[in-house]
UniProtKB/TrEMBL annotation:
SUPFAM superfamilies: Hairpin loop containing domain-like. It comes from the Eukaryota. It comes from Patella caerulea. This is Apple domain-containing protein.
Length: 81
């Protein structure tokens, strides 16, 4: 699946969890592609991702991890549907 429908969560939110994987991406769209592309760490892709526009950091997580949301400036979070 290389295309996805996503819903942006309101406010500035960042995902936190024990199985959250971090990547450095050039854009939010590249972060989305990192999320939906299956890898060894995420064989089914991810269901939620966060992106920091200032630092270009991308955080992804699959559905097996319980995540919490933290308010953080510059971060945006999306759920894939």
């Amino acid at each position: 699946m290389l295309a996805s429908t996503r819903n942006e969560l309101p406010g500035n939110k960042k995902i936190l969890g024990t199985k959250v994987l971090g990547y450095h991406n050039r854009s939010q769209i590249e972060c989305n592609l990192t999320c939906v592309t299956p890898t060894e760490d995420l064989p089914c892709g991810c269901v939620t991702y966060s992106y920091d526009m200032a630092t270009k950091q991308c955080l992804v997580v699959d559905e097996s991890d319980d995540v919490t949301m933290a308010d953080e400036a510059c971060w945006k979070t999306w759920n894939l549907v």
